[in-house]
């Protein structure tokens, strides 16, 4: 075909079919959509990352011997599989969107994926520090059937009196020989504290939600060997207030030194005493006899 | 004399105002596109007109999407590449044949870049290069065509194929390796 022929043919087709350039807004909408979905993916990835951080920080790694037979078993028990999967998916979606921006192809895949992961981690740390991870975990447990929030998983792990672990809230009582503790299932226990060391009382003076390790005597009776505060790091102050409101409305007792405030006070108290809270819990009292349950090995 | 005086970018702006100016763009790129598409497709001359027509119509429809960060040449080559890929995706296969024009400058380009080519008789290479290219994987063949026939640099190839420059370099290296293997298969004594 001659050069002139092709040119004329193309121009004829344009004229006959009344073809015109697509308007600029058409391309702008496309470009902005790609950026919009890319940014949304990064933000969702950040939220997923914050929950992963939240779960990992609250994974009770220092106490895994109390809760599982091995570190591997404990990791399998607490690993946030769904969130890791979710994070992976949104990193890939963000990567796909970024590659489809006008200049995205200029960057190599490892660079884009690396940048997505880094952004997710940084956003995750920010979201975690403002309590968004806790809010997400809490909100999903209320709305998503089958979703177990971290706090419930921790309660299941730590509140197991038969194996020597009792977790709950200390209830004020007139008795001095025992503590009255309401566990997370709502059962009341008389906890013998005669074997506790003086430093354990620093914890009991400052925190009302605690975990005891010790011996199961019988239903309703427990002998404490050690105590550590029940603490969820990265809690949202908003949810805490909301829960307190609900507790108040239900006529329940509100812990006075709950969560990070109590934990902070307690930590400062322990620092003054030059003690570490975890070391306290790891200590064994000879008076308590054999280690406080089948899973405590040292 | 609009065609000579105006830059590609100016012609794009003028075509958006008046479609008659698009004729100058067709004029300027028709031959280049014809050669490029024929080289990467092996289509006969008479079959090329449809695909060229589709390319230029797509260029016209997408004039508002022309990214001034790219050279217009890279942009139109990208559209041509995508159109060829789309066409073959629809047809499911590429025709085999020898419609690659090899002139002395192409051989010189190969010789400057391939050490092992220097040792080969130019006449022999000129006669066989088409067959060798036709035996390469499609993506390797195209990247060698862009580099040695179309004389595009890494940045331009990156913009045309929408791949990072590092990937372009890797592809060119692999393509060269495959080219050398095909040469060896042809029982050429290196």
UniProtKB/TrEMBL annotation, chain A:
It comes from the Bacteria. The chain crosses the membrane at residues 34-59, 79-98, 110-135. Keywords: Membrane, Transmembrane, Transmembrane helix. This is Uncharacterized protein. It comes from Candidatus Campbellbacteria bacterium RIFCSPHIGHO2_12_FULL_35_10.
Automatic annotation (TrEMBL), chain B:
Residues 26-93 form the RNA polymerase sigma-70 region domain. The keyword Cytoplasm does not apply. Keywords: Sigma factor, Transcription, Transcription regulation. The keyword Transcription regulation applies. CDD domains: Sigma70_r4. Transmembrane segments: none annotated. It holds the Pfam family Sigma70_r4_2. Coiled coil: none annotated. One of its GO terms (molecular function) is DNA binding. Residues 127-178 form the RNA polymerase sigma factor 70 region 4 type domain. One of its GO terms (biological process) is DNA-templated transcription initiation. Gene3D superfamilies: 1.10.1740.10, Winged helix-like DNA-binding domain superfamily/Winged helix DNA-binding domain. Belongs to the sigma-70 factor family. ECF subfamily. PANTHER family: RNA POLYMERASE ECF-TYPE SIGMA FACTO, RNA POLYMERASE SIGMA FACTOR. This is RNA polymerase sigma-70 region 2 domain-containing protein. It comes from Candidatus Campbellbacteria bacterium RIFCSPHIGHO2_12_FULL_35_10.
């Amino acid at each position: 075909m001659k050069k002139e022929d092709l040119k004329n043919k193309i121009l004829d087709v344009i004229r006959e079919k009344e073809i015109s350039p697509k308007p600029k807004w058409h391309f702008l909408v496309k470009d902005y959509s790609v950026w919009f979905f890319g940014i949304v993916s990064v933000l969702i990835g950040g939220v997923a990352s914050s929950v992963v951080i939240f779960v990992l920080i609250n994974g009770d790694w220092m106490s895994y011997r109390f809760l599982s037979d091995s570190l591997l078993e404990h990791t399998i028990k607490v690993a946030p599989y769904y969130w890791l999967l979710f994070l992976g998916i949104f990193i890939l979606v963000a990567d796909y969107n970024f590659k489809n921006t006008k200049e995205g192809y200029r960057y190599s895949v490892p660079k884009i994926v690396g940048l997505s992961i880094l952004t997710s981690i940084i956003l995750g740390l920010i979201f975690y520090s403002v309590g968004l991870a806790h809010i997400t975990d809490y909100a999903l447990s209320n709305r998503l059937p089958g979703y177990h929030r971290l706090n419930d998983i921790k309660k299941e792990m730590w509140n197991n009196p038969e194996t020597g672990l009792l977790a709950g809230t200390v209830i004020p009582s007139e008795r001095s020989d025992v503590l009255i503790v309401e566990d997370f299932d709502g059962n009341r226990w008389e906890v013998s504290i005669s074997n506790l060391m003086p430093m354990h009382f620093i914890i009991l003076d400052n925190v009302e939600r605690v975990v005891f390790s010790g011996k199961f005597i019988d239903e309703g009776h427990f002998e404490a060997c050690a105590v550590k505060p029940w603490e969820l790091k990265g809690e949202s102050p908003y949810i805490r207030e909301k829960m307190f409101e609900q507790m108040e409305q239900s006529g329940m007792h509100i812990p006075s030194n709950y969560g990070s405030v109590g934990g902070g006070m307690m930590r400062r108290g322990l620092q003054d005493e030059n003690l570490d809270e975890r070391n306290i819990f790891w200590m064994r009292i000879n008076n308590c006899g054999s280690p406080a349950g089948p899973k405590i090995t040292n | 004399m609009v065609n000579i005086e105006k830059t590609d970018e100016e012609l794009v702006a003028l075509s958006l105002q008046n479609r008659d100016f698009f004729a100058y763009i067709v004029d300027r790129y028709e031959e280049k596109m014809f050669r490029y598409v024929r080289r990467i497709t092996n289509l006969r001359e008479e079959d090329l007109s449809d695909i060229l027509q589709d390319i230029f119509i797509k260029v016209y429809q997408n004039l508002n999407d022309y990214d001034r960060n790219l050279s217009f040449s890279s942009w139109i080559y990208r559209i041509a590449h995508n159109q060829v890929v789309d066409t073959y995706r629809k047809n499911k296969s590429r025709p085999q044949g020898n419609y690659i024009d090899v002139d002395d400058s192409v051989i010189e380009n190969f010789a400057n870049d391939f050490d092992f080519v220097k040792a080969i008789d130019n006449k022999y290479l000129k006669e066989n290069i088409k067959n060798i290219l036709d035996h390469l994987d499609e993506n390797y063949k195209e990247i060698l065509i862009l580099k040695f026939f179309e004389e595009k640099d890494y940045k331009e190839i990156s913009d045309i194929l929408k791949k990072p420059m590092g990937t372009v370099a890797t592809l060119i290296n692999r393509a060269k390796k495959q080219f050398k293997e095909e040469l060896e298969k042809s029982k050429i004594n290196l």
